Amino acid sequence: WAIWHNNYQQLSNLLRESSLELEKLDPRGRTPLMLAVALDHSECTRSLINAGADANFCRDGWNITQEATSTGDPELLAIVLEASNHQRTVQRLHAVPCLLQALKDAPDFYVEIKWELSSWIPFLSRIFDFPNDVCRVWKSGSSVRVDTTLLGFAEESLSCIRGWRSHVFQSDTKQAELLEIDHD
């Protein structure tokens, strides 16, 4: 009721008393936050987000960011995007220790991945420098190294930019570091 009538003060009181379930779905499958966004109620949206509502909720392929975009309200969209990005970042950071441990537990390996593009059109390969490369990947303990020689593409001449770069990912159980080494 408080969200429907944009009574953000009553909503704030309900949130303080913990009598509102933040992720409970209404008969149409919307969370309180999705309803507040759909109704273009910025203050209710802000109150729900500050209380910890999930700004990344998705229903039938439609998420809260899309709902905010459909209102045409740039302030509401900014509120939702900021909360959504923050919540995603926090979730990813909580997953880092598990990922680092999984990397450490995985067996060591070395692999070469060769790829090349070509064309079936005659003489086209004489005009264009089709990209190709051999990527080399080493995994040892909780460290990974990737070597590549294809650095990019020159737009003016439609040719490949070549060089020799290594990307080294080093980690322990608490932190990680990414290094780029230019061998040229």
Strand content: 25-35%
pLDDT average, as an integer?
Answer: 83
Shape: elongated
Total beta-strand segments: 7
Largest pleated sheet = 5 strands, antiparallel
Uncertain spans = none
| Helix content percent band | 25-40%
Provide the succession of SSEs.
Answer: HHHEEHHEHEEEE
Lateral arrangement of strands in the main beta sheet: 3-4-5-6-7
Annotation field: number of helices: 6
Radius of gyration: 25 Å
- What gap, in angstroms, lies between the N and C termini? 66 Å
Structural class: alpha+beta
Quick structural gist:
With 184 residues, this protein is of the alpha+beta class.
Account of the 3D structure:
Helices cover 38% and strands 29% of the residues. The protein is of the alpha+beta class and 184 residues long. The model has no long low-confidence stretch (mean pLDDT 83).
Which tags fit this structure?
single chain, 184 residues, alpha+beta, five-stranded antiparallel β-sheet, two-stranded antiparallel sheet, 38% helix, elongated
Task: Detail the topology: elements first, then pairings.
Layout: H1 8-16, H2 32-38, H3 42-50, E1 58-59, E2 62-63, H4 64-71, H5 74-105, E3 109-116, H6 124-127, E4 132-140, E5 143-154, E6 159-171, E7 176-182
Antiparallel strand pairs: 1-2, 3-4, 4-5, 5-6, 6-7
Helix pairs in contact: 1-3, 2-3, 2-4, 3-5, 4-5
